[in-house]
Amino acid sequence: MKLFDIIIENKKYEFVNSIHLNGKNYVAYTDKKKIYISEFVVENDNVSFIEIDDETFNKVKEAMSL
Amino acid sequence: MNKYEVLLGEGRKPYIKITRKDKSIEVLEGLDVIKFLSRIDESIYGRKDRMNPLYEKDQKGRTLIYINKVTGKNIRIPHYQVTTTQLMKLYEEYRQEYEHDKNMEVVKGVAKTGAIMIGGLALLTMLQTAQKEADLEHTARFDEETYKEYNIKQIDEIENEYHWDGNDEEDHHKKEIFEPIEPYTVSGNDASIFEPIPEEEKPYEIEEDIDEKKEDPSIIIPKDSIDEREHPLEYPEPPETPVVPSESKENTNTNENRSMDSYADPATNMSIIDVDQSMITDEGKIEQNKQLMTEIGNASRKTGISYNILNDVISQEWSGKEKNIMHIIPESWMDQVITFHNYEKDIDQTFVITEEPSKWAGKVDFTITKAELENRQTNINVGADLIQYCLKEFDYNILLGLQAYNNGINAVKNTLEYTSSKTGVSAENIINDPTNTTWMTYVPYVINNGDPNYAKNVLKRETDYDYMFSITEDDMENYSDYMVALNDSVDKVYTVQSVSDNGEIEQESQGYKLR
């Protein structure tokens, strides 16, 4: 569904899931090869993806049932 | 018009501010917002098809609801347009339906900036964030039983003079229910704790025209949300030496429907009649306008053109006297095959406006003569068909489509080509970007007929044209149904008096009461 696509550097990713955890937003998205998990911050029309640490990654992954 | 404003922003819960005609304010926050949007949504959840802009048509991933217009700002929701709740439902559907390869490796994403997340998702995230942070149940400001009494129709009753029941006692009761509460921010990771915003950090100011609430710090709206648009439709300065392409003028006299603005009051630039206004103020026209609303609803359902748009076009075009309510100029469309999608039958249909129907027998689905255009329902239907036809020509860019309805499709295409030559932005890109209104600058230099500000004049009746992009036909289809149902439920007509502070009656008008 294009509504939920994510565009990064002109490459389109499919949205998998998103959650709000401990005051931060996390999103999972895929290029059909791997699923990526990032924290994200909405700024104007753009979204900044922030790399997360291992502990957070595991928590989010579990919360998203991935 | 009813005025709902929703604030969605990081670190704040969303709220809906309801401004009544008497300028008193009610604020819904937290769960009430979700419930309010859900209530609206229950009646308007849209069909999934090509005209539903929730389904992105832009191949470049452009947002439909622009994030920078919703983050930390008020969203004005004209009555029964797309709501965030629709997005939430879509989102839930998506999540239920989406399946990824369970064996796919899950890894950490690297830091990146400048990603584009389609607007709906960002909006949803904000709402969901707000929903969780609010810990909804305990922040609801009134209990479920009270809420049951407060539904969308009652909000309408409160707000809209059109069906205000004139009961001041009940009015007062609702004021008590919705006494505004102190705004707050989210503190750290404990989402259930909220701290008042320090006075010096409040980035908002009190709306100036709300006199009685000026002293109340909880009534706040962002500075930049008041009549200030990112892409204003104000008429820009013309180019110093405009060059009119010679071939452009040759093609500008087709398909036009000249605006009745040429007959309007030049001082106010307002059209002669406003359908909504006449509906509530002219007792003699009440029945007539109820019928008109039904007819607009019929055309809206058939063509997918929103009730509001048709209403706005009629308000713009109609003098209130003539039969050609949509101001269709038959000569402009004569013997031209028009294809439109009939949403009631879910089929494409063709017709021509012709004085020789026999010539077209078997070639099109139906024909319309000039005489038949004098039938009001036919006139509205054909006008709506033509608007849909124009919109389709410009990939449902509503501004361009409306302008084409007035000036003609070829004329608008010529304008786009000219704009492209001046700005370097291709016509295709202009069409795909509904926020790009640079072409309006060049209309008078390419088109020498009709109203160069037609689209602006039509949409000025909406509270915020930006969000017209969010209209789906089903929203308005249901809106039309609602309005028709409302008509059917009209029980009694009241005389509504506007009373000044010193007790003098300033104005009397008609109001309805729902059964």
As a percent range, the share of strand residues of chain B is 15-25%
Work out the helix count of chain B: 20
The tally of structural domains of chain B comes to: 2
Distance between the termini of chain B: 22 Å
- Give me the CATH fold name of chain A: SH3 type barrels
Shape of chain A: globular
Q: What strand line-up does the widest sheet of chain B have?
A: 3-2-1-4
CATH architecture of chain A: Roll
Query: What pair of chains forms the biggest interface?
Result: A-B, 45 and 48 residues
Q: Give the overall average pLDDT of chain B.
A: 55
Strand content of chain A: over 45%
Structure description:
Chain A is of the alpha+beta class and 66 residues long. Chain A has a single domain, classed as SH3 type barrels (Roll), CATH 2.30.30. Chain A is 15% helix and 55% strand. In chain A, a hairpin with a 2-residue loop joins β4 and β5. The radius of gyration of chain A is 12 Å and the shape is globular. In chain B, a hairpin with a 2-residue loop joins β1 (3-9) and β2. In chain B, α11 (286-303) packs parallel to α14. Chain B is α+β, with helices and mostly antiparallel strands. Mean pLDDT of chain B is 55; it is low at 1-14, 30-87, 126-282, 463-499 and 507-515. In chain B, the strands form five sheets. Chain B has a four-stranded antiparallel sheet. A three-stranded mixed sheet of chain B has the order 11-12-13. A two-stranded antiparallel ribbon of chain B has the order 7-8. Chain B contains 20 helices and 15 strands. Chain B has helices spanning 31-44, 67-70, 84-97, 119-134, 136-139, 144-148, 152-159, 168-177, 246-250, 275-281, 286-303, 307-317, 330-333, 376-393, 398-407, 409-423, 427-432, 439-446, 454-459, 473-488; strands at 3-9, 12-19, 25-29, 73-76, 105-108, 112-117, 184-187, 190-196, 204-205, 221-222, 338-342, 347-353, 366-368, 490-499, 505-514. At the A-B interface, β1, β2, β3, β4 and β5 of A face α3, β5, β6 and α4 of B. β5 of chain A pairs antiparallel with β6 (112-117) of chain B, so a sheet runs across the interface.
